[in-house]
Amino acid sequence: MASQLQTEPAGLICKPLKTYAEVLDWDPTAVPWANTVMGLQPRSRHNLRGAKQICHGFMSLWRQPFRYERNSTPKTLFCHDLQGGYLEDRFVVGSPKCKEYRFFHWGCIDIFVYFSHHLVTIPPPTWINAGHLHGVRVLGTLITEWDAGKAVWDQIFESDESLETFVNCLVNICKYVGFDGYLLNVENKLDPCQVEKMENFVKILHRKLHDNVPHAQLIWYDSVTTEGKLKWQNELNNLNRTFFDNCDGIFLNYNWTEKTLLNSAVNAGVRMLDVYVGVDVFGRKCFSGGGFNTWQALKFIQEYKLSVALFAPSWVHETLDPDHFVCLEYIFWKKLWNYLYIHGPSHLPFSTSFCQGYGKRLYHKGKVIQDHPWYNLSKQQYQPSVPSCLNDCCIERSEKPKEVSSEQTQQSGDDALQSEESGLVQKESSCDKMNKGCVQHHNRDAFQGGGCLEIQRLRLLEAAEDLYFHRLLMCDFSCNGATVFVVSTKNNDDDITNLDLMLLIEENTGKYSMKVLYADPSGGSTSVARDYKAFPLQPAEVQDLNEQLPVVARYQPMYSTEGDVPWEVRHYLLNIQGRILEIGATLSGPGNSVLLGYLGIYPVRP
What phi and psi, each to the nearest 5 degrees, are found at residue 487? Predict the structure, then answer.
């Protein structure tokens, strides 16, 4: 694959537009991959506070959730800036470099911005697909900087016709490629006579975007003012208010204070949720210093009920050891989770293998069909609604090792390198042993794609195991009768462990109930009432339903390679009249962990 990617035609590589002329001359035939872009998928009508969405808890606490209307809570904008952008993610068909950055906590994100320092940033289709799968709007960026940026606006503002033409080009690019709007980042001064033209530009672009992409978002970055000065305000005030009034929101600069937050909230009035307070995860002159302390800024912002714009959360991957990226990413987002609002899927049929869009191998129905690494976020599957419960113990161990000084002698340099290699082995071993969250990504096996979920037993509560559950998905699935659930699991140690799925249901009558899908057909927990139990269908019963299921979800005998533990695929048929609000899991049996490789929910004819 590597050699193939190096010789790919330009049409299979996503590229930005770097000049004013390139924008005007943009040709849709240059992006034949536009038809691979997924449309924006629906998400739950309500959301939950992250503080209530921990990854495990007692069943007695799993009752009617306190839900919020989706448009009544602060939002989270993720502005992705990684080494200039357009790295391995630029390849439409994927890359063989499987250690590249990926994001898998989409449940807490409302808007994703792909950012670069080129004039017009077109988000790569792999990112659009991953975001859209989770119901997240994906924006490109229009940025102009310094004298070169001023020259671009001089061309745009040359006449009413040139302004209209440029707007039409931006709208056509957005509509054709399939993304959802722009971040406007004007980081250059304007002539006083151009300020009114900029106001008009924002107003026209906003209107035309919404005419062509009804769910579009146009976000203004706090930079140039109504006086034409490049002067960051760090708040919403009269010097940037007119731009805010003519678009969908403002992304505030990062050097805010308690006073400027209060000013922004007061000045925004009923639109306070459209104020995105900038937080630089790199911590450059930013409250709390960024990094693993970023949560402190979010906690402070939450007190003013404003939305948040996280800039460059890829800091975790860019500055720390990528070999432990998944572990560190879980820790970073777990710290933020209490201050975010969580969405979930809402459309049936639904299926996921929990693949993050990369793998050391590629699997189909448990079989290896590609025995080399790959990376393609378009292949990402729906991700869990909670971060794992990992703690901070491996942060220091996972920092990048210091490079050997060039001033060292060759001998001492060799000694240092040997010591470094030994340290890396010890670090990996200690990290792996000390950082096993109860629900986390597993990349050494898969049922479909390149990975799955590993669900660990909570040994501290072994005596009350059947009273405990692990959260997997916050959701909003409307069911109107016969529904098939397909579950694929695999034991991850020598002892047999069963994984039972739990459904929290809001019935059409308004009553809340629980349904447990037991792996063991012998009866399951005696503490659960009979009406709340469901057991796997027999093979003959599944075969009657096979034609109504996609191929990957159909009945098959347990598959394993020689000497390997088999994947078990189970089917359940339930009659549900209501909405599934959450999906969790419990473990039973003597083992320590189970792999969950596939979850599918399919309405079927009785």
Answer: -130, 130
Helix (H) or strand (E) holding 245: helix 241-245
Q: In the Cβ-directed half-sphere of 65, how many Cα atoms lie within 13 Å? A: 29
pLDDT, one tens digit per residue, over 109-134 is: 999 999 999 999 999 999 999 999 99
Q: What are phi and psi of 123, to 5 degrees?
A: -60, 135
Band (pLDDT 50/70/90 cuts) for residue 91 is very high
Distance CA 243, CA 326 (A): 39
pTM of the model: 0.91
The better pLDDT of the pair 556, 476 is held by 476
Residue 290 included in any domain:
yes
Q: In this structure, are 397 and 519 located in the same domain?
A: no
Same domain assignment for residues 417 and 534: no
Pairing of the two strands 120-121 and 137-145 = antiparallel
Whose CA is closest to 172, among 14, 28, 13, 17? 28
Classify 23 in phi/psi space as left (phi over 0), alpha (psi -120 to 50) or beta: alpha
**Any residues with CB less than 8 A from the CB of 462 and at least 6 apart, and which?**
none
Q: For the beta carbon of residue 55, count every other beta carbon within 10 angstroms.
A: 24
Which long-range CB contacts under 8 A does 540-547 form with residues at least 24 apart?
Answer: 541/571, 541/573, 542/571, 545/484, 545/571, 545/573, 545/604
Q: Is residue 67 in some structural domain?
A: no
In a domain, 551, yes or no: yes
Range of the domain at 84: 75-343
pLDDT tens figures, 431-489: 444 457 789 999 999 999 999 999 988 755 444 545 678 899 999 999 999 999 999 99
Through-space distance between the first and last CA atoms of the chain, rounded to whole angstroms:
45
Number of domains in the chain: 3
Contact 445, 355 (CB under 8 A): no
SS3 category, 602: strand
Q: For residue 214, what is the domain's CATH number?
A: 3.20.20.80
Beta bridge partners of 363: 368, 449
